[in-house]
Amino acid sequence: MSGQRWRNLAIQCVVMAALLLLLWLLLDTTAANLRERGIRSGFDFLFDPAGFAIGESLLPFDSGDTILWALVVGLSNTLRVAVPAIVISTFIGTLIGLGRLSPNVLLRGLCAGYVESLRNVPLLLQLLAWYFVVTDWLPTASEALQILPHVFLSKGGLAIPWLQVSGDHVATPGWFDLPLRGELAVTGGATLTPEFLALLLGLTLYTAAYVAETVRGGIRAVSLGQREAALAMGFTRTQAFRLVLLPQALRSIIPPLTNQHLSLSKNASLAVAIGYPDLVSIANTTINQTGRAAECIAVIMAVYLALSLLTAGFSAWLENRSGRWERTS
User: 150, 221, 226, 325: most buried by Cβ count inside 10 Å?
Assistant: First the structure.
């Protein structure tokens, strides 16, 4: 290792040590000030009973469960809406981005109108709008709209068929629990609440507008001569796009696309505005119960940092894979 590299490594170690020392001093001073004022601190509260209920969750939860488990349930609710929103927004955004490159003037104009409209309206307003649409404009459960066989939409949410669970075994596909519209309500199946639907729609449609621009910009970044050369070699338009343009465009698309996915995950914290019990919402309830604001905020920051690092790592892996794809195609 050269002398310059050793000096650079030494400087980085000194800077890291200084930052760690500064962080330790900050935490020690904060803890001392809290003790002087008789304010409890620490993370022992995570093992106390929560003392509150959670409106909806994939995981079982009771008010007697620990606060730590309540936060885990909140994280599962965040992932429950963020993961499908990422998948759907990527699919819709890709289609819209391709539509903006279409030679059809009407299609290109409609896609451009979608992008400009959704990007220029704050996400919070869109979430509130979707929530009011679901809760105010839809019919009551007794008059639920039947979208598909045994799929009903009403103020109570979206009722869909779901597998029955008998004991420790999941029922076979022939034993689906099918929603049925009764005189007062829709019974059976599983129900996606209005809060979940509003959050999913808002995050998906808003992020899809940014994904569309990412896809369009990535494809436009590839030289037009690449497409012309592929066509001159006898490739069809589809083959030219799939084997020549797309592999090169992915190098420009994947990094900003990852940023959009990260933004979507963090924007899910706006769920508190419409009453969806995500991680931030449950942490706010915990702060009101325990008064441990700094600790709860630290937990939220740590969770979102971990999610961001995992997403960034997956993006790096996918970018590396796309580079190998480009070299072999």
Answer: 150
Phi and psi (nearest 5°) for 143?
-120, 35
pTM for this structure? Answer: 0.81
The secondary structure of 229-254 as a DSSP string is: HHHHTT--HHHHIIIIIHHHHHHHHH
In the three-class reduction of DSSP (H, G, I as helix; E, B as strand; rest coil), residue 180 is classed as: strand
Edge-to-edge strands, sheet with 190-192: 145-148, 151-154, 157-160, 190-192
Burial 170-196 (b: 16+ CB within 10 A, else e): eeeeeebbbbebeeebbebbebbbbbb
Euclidean distance between CA atoms 78 and 83, whole angstroms? 8
Q: Residue 318: which residues within 8 A CB-CB, separation 6 or more?
A: 254
Q: For domain 67-133+194-328, give the CATH superfamily.
A: MetI-like (1.10.3720.10)
**Helices of type H across the chain:** 3-36, 67-99, 105-119, 123-132, 194-220, 224-232, 237-240, 246-267, 279-290, 293-328
Q: Dihedrals φ, ψ of 233, to 5°?
A: -85, 0
Q: Any idea where the domains of the chain sit in the sequence?
A: 67-133+194-328
pLDDT digits (tens, 9 = 90+) for 136-164: 888 888 888 888 888 888 888 888 888 77
From residue 174, give the alpha-carbon distance in Å to each of 143, 170, 171, 294.
Answer: 27, 11, 8, 50
Can you tell me the distance from the alpha carbon of 272 to that of 112, in angstroms, rounded to the nearest whole number? 31
Q: Report how far residue 110's alpha carbon sits from residue 107's, in angstroms, rounded to the nearest whole number.
A: 5
197 near 132, Cβ under 8 Å? no
C-alpha 152 chain-centroid distance: 25
> Could you give the C-alpha distances from 86 to 92, 234, 285, in angstroms and in order?
10, 36, 27
pLDDT value, residue 167: 47
